[in-house]
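Structure Section — protein described below
Tokens — whole-number codes for backbone shape
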Amino acid sequence: MKQYIFLTFALLSIFPSFSQVEKNKKIRVFLDCQSYCDQDFIKREIPFVDYVNDRFQSNVFILSNHQVTGSGGRDYKLQFTGREMFAGVNDTLSFVRHATATDDEGRQQMVQTLKLGLVKYLARTEHGKNLQISMKEDGGEAGIETGAPQEDPWNLWVFNARVNAYLNGDRNYFSNSFSSGFSAARITEKFKTTTSLSYSVNRNRYGEGEDAFEFSNEYYRGNNTTVWALGDHWSAGGYFEVLRSDFGNYRSSWTLNPAIEYNFFPYSESNNHYVGLMYKIGPSYFDYYEETIYLQTEELRFKHNLSLDISLNKKWGQLSGSASYGHYFHDISKNRLTFSGYADLRLYKGLSLNLSGYFALQRDQLNIAKGDISNEDLLTRRRQLDSNYSFYSSFGIRYRFGSIFNNVVNPRFDGAGSVYFF
């Protein structure tokens, strides 16, 4: 008798999930956006599929990621992978969101590309008979791509300028900051050069009256990166930087680093996977505000650095990391070893793990000013202090369970934003 009761409860427990799948004949889509997607908008505009929150329950997996274009836009790639009845039906579609495009224009492009990619799957279902296809006539409007090359009066140069200000405080504390910047870049498939200039000042006050402690920090920086393509796997170029920072004790700092890089995969595939080995070498000149702990007021030093960088975007998640080592030639004990990484991994069904961290063994701080360390220096960090290591880390686990379908959009009480359901 107990066996029959157990069997009855077992059948009742699996019946809801069984009927849920059987009654639903739509394509089951798992949309994995490595960059932001307006999923509420997508669900409203594409209601003819079921959106599931577990990739193992989907029969169409869509991975969306992007790279930044030379003009500051984004080159999106949507990778469609068929599962179950659609096994082997795969595709990759792309679109470019221009830097001046609004959020609405960007999400409209996303929806249009998703619809195009879903057509081949719909055509293989009973819903294919309801599919209607139409095409707009090319009216020759400005901005529509045609076979003829378009003239570019800027010759691929892109410029950006910014100004920012910030105020914060109360009776016992006051802080204000100002920053500005300018950048210029020209990027082609074989050549890339980017230049930026920036300035910032930050003023702080702790306490009030005669006991108040006040200080300010100013920061100037200019840099250029230039790279030439040497084939599908090799690149060569260099970095140049000039710096002025009272926090870092630099009256002026000049660095020039020629560099060479090898990508174990073709650069055309870097949207999905990138494993790069880079070597940099060159001189640095330092002119200090205050004498350093090594009794220097200025110095010219040579340094080199070797780094390995990895980035993977797959349907099981995202993984990136970096390891680097470098030292000064005049004293190899003045060296730095760093590790950093980020992982967002789907382990099983609704179980996912995310990790990030950075750790550095830093024995190359030539710029640390000599002198006693006051309590104000420790509490406010108004100047850089000697430390032979630094780190940060974060981790989290998420488990989602319950209904696998999440088609419903309900914006009530969301205001101008949206609810993040963790």
In short: Confidence is low (pLDDT under 50) at residues 1-24, 140-147.
